[in-house]
Write a structure and sequence with these properties.
Layout: E1 2-13, H1 17-29, E2 35-38, H2 81-98, E3 101-104, E4 107-111, E5 114-117, E6 123-135, E7 152-153, E8 159-161, E9 174-178, H3 182-193, E10 201-204, E11 209-213, H4 227-235, H5 240-249, E12 253-254, E13 264-270, H6 272-278, E14 283-285, E15 290-294, E16 297-300, E17 303-306, E18 311-315, E19 330-331, E20 334-336, H7 345-358, H8 363-369, H9 379-406, H10 417-430, H11 434-445
Parallel strand pairs: 1-2, 1-6, 2-3, 6-20, 7-15, 8-18, 9-10, 9-18, 10-14, 11-13
Antiparallel strand pairs: 4-5, 5-6, 11-12, 15-16, 16-17, 19-20
Helix pairs in contact: 1-7, 4-5, 9-11
Length: about 450
């Protein structure tokens, strides 16, 4: 066994979107620090390396990537997966040229500040870390191509991950898309774009989800629209369900079927044109999760389904962003990257890096500024995520408002000053006594737990 000795101020495990955003901002805040990055992939970009070839961003490229490097063509542009991978390669090359960063692809952490090569089992590295180890893998993004189905697949069944749709060279009589999340949405849209008849597409949707209208998350939208307006509508209601119904009636939240009440909120984002296409699918199977698939049939939690057609099953069931328990972002010599703003992971990673340098001497203050916001799953998680996000934004505005305004990954940096003033005025006008109403509604939805800005406990291993 060969053990290569290294030294660095920071050891960063993971070169995905969050890891790269963290390192980029860390370098800006401290141009003298040294960093070692370790990742299992051959190239930077994390799950983008495994994603299906027709994937695109679901939110504007304008505020995705890293702070120091623009991505996309501006405006509402949604960069493709290929563009994103090329982007991260450019960012990495710039980091390496600086001399601050050493990068070890196709390697895995083995703990105790050690990592080993995935190609040479006799090669291991040990890092003398002067400051901290950064876990950029905690969010645990999964895509279908690297995680097989959790349901049983009988021999002879034609099943592919969503990636396989790009390689088909022969038709099937019917296509069964398994999964109601954003990956399933992309699979359905691709089949429709390729000219597959809507009646030849069957869509397994175990639980309907609320959809965000992409127009609602564009910079410089009119005052009274956007995610802040969602929270205002919730606070004006007597209950969460009433508030969600009001948002749906106003067209601020979208539903696949207006007659089916969603129970999930996963930050899935669609345009209204995409929603029109999705509603062309009439064969939506709502019988719970898939238990087993056979060449011509499925067993689901709430019943059976079968067809005489030659079927291709398309697995889209991987949980791209599973719920993770909150733990302290800063804990001694460990930093655990987590989302600090609802559905804004890369922005959160950059903010954590800034706080790490600017508040290095005060871990209590670091954690006060970096309260994790769990990725929402159920509808009530929407309320919790917004409540925690709102509390964080208030603290950040007082502590480092100028940084927020200048951070490319912050949607606030892309708002015009007049629009920011209008948005702030609108928020103050409509959220009078909002804190008390948030606490009341949280108590209704989460009677089993206390919600606050206290430092979260680390989840048990």
């Amino acid at each position: 066994m060969t053990i290569n000795k290294l030294e660095a101020d920071y050891l960063v495990i993971g070169a995905g979107a969050m890891g790269m955003a963290f390192v980029d901002e860390l370098r800006k805040q401290d141009p003298q620090c040294s960093i070692v990055i370790v990742d299992r992939h051959a190239n930077p970009g994390g799950h983008w390396n495994d994603a299906y070839p027709f994937v695109t961003l679901h939110q504007p490229a304008l505020f995705y990537g890293v702070n120091s490097e623009p991505l996309g063509r501006g405006g509402e542009d949604l960069s493709s997966g290929a563009e994103i991978l090329a982007y991260y390669q450019r960012v990495l090359e710039k980091m390496l040229r600086s001399g601050q960063v050493k990068y070890f692809p196709q390697s895995e952490s083995v703990g105790s500040n050690r990592f080993r090569s995935l190609l040479e089992p006799e090669l291991e590295h040990e890092v003398l870390v002067h400051r901290k180890v950064v876990d950029a893998t905690y969010m645990n993004v999964e895509v279908p191509s690297v995680r097989g189905p959790k349901y049983k697949v009988a021999e002879g069944t034609a099943v592919v991950p969503i990636n396989g749709l790009a390689n088909l060279v022969k038709p099937f009589g019917a296509y069964v898309v398994i999964g109601g999340g954003k990956t399933g949405i992309d699979a359905v849209l691709l089949l429709l774009q390729r000219g597959v008849a809507p009646d030849h597409i069957h869509w397994v949707v175990p639980n309907d989800s609320w959809f965000l209208d992409r127009a609602q998350i564009q910079p410089n939208r009119p005052a009274g629209e956007g995610l802040g307006a969602h929270m205002e509508a919730i606070l004006a209601a007597e209950s969460l369900s009433e508030g969600m119904r009001d948002l749906a009636r106003a067209g601020r939240l979208l539903q696949l079927d207006p007659e089916v009440w969603p129970t999930k909120y996963r930050c899935a984002t669609v345009s209204r044109d995409e929603l029109i296409e999705l509603r062309r699918i009439r064969q939506v199977i709502r019988k719970g999760r898939v238990v087993e698939i056979n060449p011509g049939a499925m067993a689901l939690e709430q019943g059976q389904w079968s067809s005489d057609e030659n079927i291709l099953f398309v697995d889209c069931s991987a949980d791209g962003l599973a719920h993770r328990d909150r733990c302290p972002v800063f804990e001694g010599s460990q930093i655990t990257l987590q989302s600090l703003m609802i559905c804004q992971q890369v922005f959160s990673a950059s903010l954590i890096a800034m706080v790490e340098i600017r508040y290095a001497s005060d871990e209590v203050e670091q954690n006060r500024l970096c309260q994790p916001v769990p990725h929402p799953v159920d509808t009530r998680d929407f309320l919790l995520a917004f409540a925690l996000t709102s509390a964080n934004l208030q603290v950040w505005g007082a502590a480092f408002g100028r940084w927020l305004r200048r951070s490319r990954l912050s949607i606030l940096s892309h708002e015009s000053l007049p629009n920011l003033i209008r948005q702030a005025w609108h928020a103050r006008k409509n959220v009078v006594g909002g804190s008390e109403r948030i606490e009341r509604m949280l108590a209704q939805e989460f009677p089993e737990r206390r919600i606050g800005r206290e430092a979260p406990a680390r989840a048990a291993d």
